[in-house]
């Protein structure tokens, strides 16, 4: 998105949001600005910049003249709460530069990077970039902008002056510092000195804690951080027509809407109930699942219509869908305006391969709703830690796990793994399963289920890390509220902080997914 246009003596200056295609050039320019850091290996990686653009694309802004990148800023949102001027380090506040701790519910825009190409410094480009940050802060109604400012001239005087004395001389106009003097002209105020902020010999490892207060900030209540979710513990039973199935589905959507839910979640393969219609009963497994895939259009038309009519998000469990002759187990998420996205199941059970010939997908996406970022892990996918880790690293706050399990052992595998995913990634995990029997549909004879919502295990959350759960094997609707703000408070200052305490020096996580969110 283009944010600003300005005619300059050097050509047309455009300030816009960074894109994936810009990453290599951004790294190149940054190395030219900070050759000392580049030589020491302290420079942005391609992986880090990809994550920045995934978790907070609005905060990654560049300036270009005649199409050539000449500067950039990188920002994330953090929660500083009642003690915004506390000591911190660069690595700590930016998650070692990865921004995985970006908090959309936070109160502060944190400036993690700013640079301008040496050939274009002193020409006002930094001012335009800072203005774009202020505009973003006001647009998002954040309380402030904070940052750790380099004291690039301090090392020359460190034997005579403390950092506080050096800053005071700059503030009083007795001395100029290339960075701090510019920041003060841009309206920032020094709130303190950050000791051991980062390995920066020119600043003797110190930094100024600078702040710009948003004059238009309007306090908001906490309701905006809450998301009400309804989980359908769905009993499959024989139906005579598609209309019978539609009536059962609409009953749950209508009830969820009556309870003012933001989202209703159905189980995996709940649409297989359609194979109990007359003329389809007892079809061989492979023939039956292909027949069900042919019903994709009426199934999706129903879900889209219900989402629009009742004004909520629907995670429509899953339904077999054929693409280019390949059969996938797809979970649709339908938005209140009737648009939708599809998440394929990526790990396929032996039974799904054997009985139905289903193939695994190769994408994992994070979906933005009006209350939270959600990811979907269909049943067996929840049993693979790396899938949930990937979604959490891309910004997911809630993981949806629709499942279809035939017995208690299978159900417990999903349940225990979902609880582990909630704790290790500090996210909510919402589960919904099928119950009941379908004796006329091969491979779908019996089912065991207990809808439940799991949270991290800490003081902010429910006892035992179980936000809510239904009685097992009883058809019902489970309704609960998820406070997204609690997630970020726990991530920042919980009894344990697993997202912040990962040993990136020992373990490296890689994926081959494109950034789909």
Automatic annotation (TrEMBL):
UniProt GO MF annotations: acyltransferase activity, transferring groups other than amino-acyl groups
Protein name per its UniProtKB record: GNAT family N-acetyltransferase
Residues annotated as signal peptide: none
All residue ranges annotated as the N-acetyltransferase domain in the record: 13-216
InterPro entries for this protein: Acyl_CoA_acyltransferase (IPR016181), C-N_Hydrolase (IPR003010), C-N_Hydrolase_sf (IPR036526), GNAT_dom (IPR000182)
Keyword line: Transferase
Organism: Puniceicoccus vermicola
Pfam families: Acetyltransf_1, CN_hydrolase
Family annotation (CDD domains): NAT_SF, nitrilase_Rim1_like
Boundaries of every CN hydrolase domain copy: 227-484
């Amino acid at each position: 998105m283009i944010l600003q246009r300005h005619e300059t003596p050097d050509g047309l200056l455009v300030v816009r949001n960074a894109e994936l295609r810009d990453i290599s050039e951004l790294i190149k320019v940054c190395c030219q600005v900070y050759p000392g850091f580049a030589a020491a290996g302290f420079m942005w990686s391609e992986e880090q910049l990809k994550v920045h653009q995934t978790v907070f694309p609005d905060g990654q802004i560049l300036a270009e003249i005649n199409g050539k990148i000449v500067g950039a800023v990188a920002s994330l949102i953090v929660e500083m709460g009642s003690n915004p001027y506390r000591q911190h380090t660069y690595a700590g506040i930016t998650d070692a530069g990865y921004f995985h701790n970006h908090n959309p519910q936070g109160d502060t825009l944190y400036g993690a990077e700013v640079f301008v190409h040496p050939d274009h410094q002193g020409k006002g480009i930094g001012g335009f970039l800072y203005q774009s940050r202020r505009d973003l802060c006001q647009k998002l109604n954040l309380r402030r902008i904070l940052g750790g400012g380099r004291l690039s001239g301090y090392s020359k005087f460190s034997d005579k002056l403390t950092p506080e004395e050096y800053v005071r001389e700059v503030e009083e106009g007795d001395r100029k510092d290339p960075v701090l003097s510019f920041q003060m002209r841009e309206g920032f105020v020094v709130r303190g000195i950050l000791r051991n902020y980062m390995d920066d010999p020119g600043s003797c490892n110190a930094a100024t804690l600078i702040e710009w207060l948003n004059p238009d900030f309007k306090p908001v209540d906490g309701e905006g951080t809450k998301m009400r979710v309804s989980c359908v513990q769905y009993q499959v039973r024989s139906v005579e027509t598609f209309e019978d199935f539609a009536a059962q589905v609409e009953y749950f959507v209508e009830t969820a809407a009556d309870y003012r839910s933001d989202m209703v979640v159905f189980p995996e393969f709940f649409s297989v109930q359609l194979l109990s219609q007359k003329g389809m009963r007892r079809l061989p497994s492979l023939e039956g699942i292909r027949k069900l895939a042919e019903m994709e259009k009426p199934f999706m038309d129903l879900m889209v219509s219900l989402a629009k009519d009742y004004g909520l998000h629907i995670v429509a469990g899953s339904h077999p869908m054929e693409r280019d002759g390949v059969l996938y187990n797809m979970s649709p998420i339908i938005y209140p305006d009737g648009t939708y996205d599809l998440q394929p199941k990526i790990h396929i059970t032996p039974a799904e391969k054997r009985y139905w010939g289903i193939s695994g997908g190769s994408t994992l996406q994070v979906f933005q709703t009006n209350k939270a970022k959600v990811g979907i892990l269909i049943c067996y996918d929840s049993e693979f830690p790396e899938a949930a880790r990937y979604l959490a690293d891309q910004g997911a706050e809630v993981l949806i796990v629709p499942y279809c399990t035939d017995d208690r052992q299978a159900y417990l595998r999903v349940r225990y793994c979902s609880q582990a995913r909630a704790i290790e990634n500090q996210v909510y995990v919402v589960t919904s399963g099928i119950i009941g029997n379908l004796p006329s549909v091969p491979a779908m004879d019996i089912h065991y289920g207990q809808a439940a919502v799991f949270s991290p295990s800490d003081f902010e959350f429910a006892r035992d890390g179980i936000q809510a759960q239904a009685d097992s094997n009883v058809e019902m609707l489970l309704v609960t509220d998820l406070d997204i703000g609690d997630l970020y408070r726990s991530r920042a200052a919980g009894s344990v902080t697993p997202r912040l305490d990962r040993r990136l020096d020992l373990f490296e996580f890689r994926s081959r997914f494109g950034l789909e969110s």
